[in-house]
Design goal:
GO terms for molecular function: purine-nucleoside phosphorylase activity. Its EC number is 2.4.2.1. The protein is α/β, with parallel strands linked by helices and 271 residues long. The chain has 6 helices and 9 strands; from the N terminus they run H-E-E-E-E-H-E-E-H-E-H-E-H-E-H. It has helices at residues 2-15, 89-102, 161-173, 194-202, 213-221, 246-269, and strands spanning 23-27, 39-45, 63-69, 72-78, 106-115, 125-133, 178-185, 207-209, 226-235. A 5-stranded mixed β-barrel has the order 5-8-7-6-9, surrounded by 4 helices. Strand 6 (125-133), helix 3 (161-173) and strand 7 form a beta-alpha-beta unit. The chain is globular.
């Protein structure tokens, strides 16, 4: 991996004039609008970056954005990668290792998720304070490179408590409905059955999605502080499970995005 990572990082440095980001950002499904807040200096298509996986989803742009946001140098993934697209866990999380090698000190992650908690409604935000990993394998499976992180990384606090506290304060000041909760990561791409939603709630989940946790594991492996937030785009509770389409999920994510953007922007400003 070291040689592959070196090749990718050197290409990016060459194309982006040795841009040194402080903060990495992953923008989830329907949540690419934060890019409009960034004073963009460079932009690279995933498809043009050596060894970089290409997003196969038509609603994910597949770009690395480099620029300034509230006085901080950032690198943003406009479009993430998923296990269900056919990639390995190592490929999905390769961009996190690239961002670390480029110099990021913090990682901010967003996603669209389904609510499992009857108190968390469609269109609300949920800051992730813990997770349950139901993905089929770990991105750390295989030989460990001790230069990147320990063989058995601690996961007692995968999400930075200070970031969570600040973000909740920002949400309260802005009168944004925002919860804290446990995110369950599943494979997808199918949505869950009613029985599966019930099971995920019973085991302690507040929201369910198909991403985020692999990236968080690798970030913790490399000692990168993480903040993650979900836009709740559908509801998996109640007596009757209402069918939901991708179009509805995207519409809900886009409608809630300005609230998420406000929290992320102000949180970055506070660093």
């Amino acid at each position: 991996m070291f040689q592959t990572l070196h090749e990718t990082v050197e290409y990016i440095k060459l194309k982006c004039n040795n841009f040194q980001p402080e903060i990495g950002i992953i923008l989830g499904t329907g949540l690419g609008g934060l890019v409009n807040e960034i004073d963009v200096e460079f932009s690279l298509m995933y498809s043009n970056i050596p060894n970089f996986p290409i997003s196969t989803l038509e609603f994910h742009s597949g770009k690395l954005i480099f620029g300034n946001l509230n006085g901080k140098k950032v690198i943003a993934m406009q479009g993430r990668l998923h296990y269900y697209e056919g990639y390995s866990m190592q490929q999905i999380t390769f961009p996190i290792r690239v961002m670390k090698a480029l110099g990021i000190q913090h990682l901010f992650i967003s996603n669209a998720a389904g609510s499992l908690n009857a108190d968390f409604k469609k269109g609300d935000l949920m800051i992730i304070n813990d997770h349950i990993n139901l993905q089929p394998e770990s991105p750390l499976r295989g030989r460990n490179d001790s230069d990147m992180g320990p063989r058995f990384p601690d996961m007692s606090q995968p999400y930075q408590k200070d970031f969570i506290k600040r973000a909740m304060e920002i949400a309260a000041a802005e009168k944004i409905t925002c919860h804290q909760g446990v995110y369950v990561s599943v494979t997808g791409p199918n949505l869950e059955t009613k029985a599966e939603y019930n099971y995920l709630r019973i085991i302690g989940g507040d929201a369910v999605g198909m991403s985020t946790v692999p990236e968080v594991i690798v970030a913790n492996h490399m000692s990168i502080p993480v903040f993650a937030i979900s836009v709740l785009t559908d509801e998996g509770f109640g007596d009757v499970l209402v069918p939901v389409s991708l179009e509805e999920i995207l519409e809900t994510a886009r409608a809630a995005e300005p609230k998420m953007t406000k929290i992320l922007s102000q949180l970055i400003l506070s660093l």
